[in-house]
Design brief:
Layout lengths: L6 H27 L4 H6 L4 H23 L1
Length: about 70
C-alpha cells in the first residue's frame, strides 16, 4: 500500500472538471446566440422540440470534449 499512485485519479478529476467547464461555456454561448431564453422556453412553455435539440447539442459537445481530452 506504500506505492499508491494518485496522479491518475488527480488527472481524471481535473479533466472532468475541465470538460464540465467547457460544456457550460459552450451552453452559455449558445444561450446568448439564440433569440429566446432556452431554459425558460423548455421549463415554462414545455417546448419538447427545443429540449430534444439542446439534449443533442449537449451530447455532441460532450463527445467532442471527451475525444479532445482523451486523445
Amino acid at each position: 500500500m506504500d506505492n499508491i499512485n494518485l496522479l491518475p485519479i488527480f488527472n481524471s478529476v481535473l479533466y472532468s472538471i475541465l470538460g464540465i467547464a467547457i460544456l457550460l461555456v459552450c451552453y452559455f454561448i449558445i444561450e446568448k446566440l439564440t433569440p429566446e431564453k432556452t431554459w425558460h422556453e423548455i421549463s415554462q412553455n414545455k417546448n419538447i422540440a427545443l429540449a430534444i435539440v439542446f439534449g443533442a447539442f449537449i451530447i455532441g459537445i460532450s463527445m467532442i470534449i471527451s475525444a479532445a481530452i482523451h486523445g
